[in-house]
Design brief:
Length: about 100
């Protein structure tokens, strides 16, 4: 019986278990660090320190492993990254057409 999926990798989207979130752990799919800001539910680009937690220590490299005590796994699938094809749900043109269709 496998471990329960707790979150997803910020880089490749692979499901991660509790054991995959150690301080030096790396994603089994893409070998990127899993205990990093980009993989945390508090990660918020555009906010101060790019984090929703106001008391957090500043972390410069958001895609590298860190010692943040506020870290919590990102529960859903990550957003698209450069070079990936957008789905109909995230494609700006599809979203615009859907909004326009509401007023027809």
């Amino acid at each position: 019986m496998g471990e329960e999926i707790r979150g997803h990798c910020w880089n490749c989207g692979r499901g991660l278990t509790k054991l995959d979130y150690g301080r030096e752990a790396r994603c089994p799919g893409c070998d990127k660090p899993t205990h990093c800001c980009r993989n945390c539910r508090h990660y918020a680009p555009g906010r101060p320190n790019e984090c929703r937690e106001p008391m957090v220590d500043r972390v410069i490299a958001k895609d590298r492993a860190n010692f943040c005590d506020w870290f919590q796994p990102l529960p859903g699938s990550p957003s698209l990254h450069a070079g990936e094809t957008p789905s109909a749900a995230t494609d700006p043109e599809s979203l615009k057409r859907a909004a326009e269709d509401l007023f027809k």
